[in-house]
Design brief:
The structure is a single chain. This protein is of the alpha+beta class and 138 residues long. The protein has one domain. Helix content is 21%, strand content 36%. It is built from three helices and five strands; from the N terminus they run αββββααβ. The chain has a five-stranded antiparallel beta sheet. The radius of gyration is 18 Å and the shape is globular.
Length: 138
């Protein structure tokens, strides 16, 4: 008796989207924008929600960074500086943004520097997400 279920084309596509990056999934709430390396200082960390509060040393602005499960949150120390690799995502749904700012989030083919995303985070924190990819001590 064969208990293995054969996947239909639709199911295989759906499974593939779950495995790939969230930005490739049609149901994703976030759009991948850039990858950058920054020197940051950790100000606080929350193990329950896997986030860190960091200050970007180039702009002297603080922002929250998500820490995925594959990155060791325990290795990050508060009040220590790191050279961090960070991915930036913007919200796919731009209805919450004011009309003038919506273009900032809609136009994904424009190369914007990381500084602009960090500054925009202060105005629209729910529309920008930062994700830690890797880090090393400075």
């Amino acid at each position: 008796m064969n208990t293995r279920k054969e996947l239909t084309d639709k199911e295989e596509y759906s499974y593939g989207c779950d495995v790939l990056s969230d930005s490739l999934s049609k149901a994703s709430e976030w759009v991948y924008r850039i990858f950058d390396r920054r020197t940051i200082s950790i100000k606080a960390k929350n193990d329950k929600v896997r986030k860190i509060a960091a200050v970007d040393l180039a702009t002297n602005l603080s922002f929250a960074i998500d820490v995925p499960m594959e990155v060791s949150l325990e290795s990050l120390e508060v009040s220590k500086e790191y050279f961090a690799s960070i991915k930036v995502y913007t919200a796919q749904n731009t209805e919450a943004a004011p009309p003038g700012a919506a273009e900032f989030f809609k136009v994904v083919d424009v190369d914007r520097p990381m500084d602009e995303f960090i500054k925009a985070y202060w105005l629209y924190p729910k529309m920008i997400k930062f994700e830690l990819v890797e880090f090393e001590s400075t």
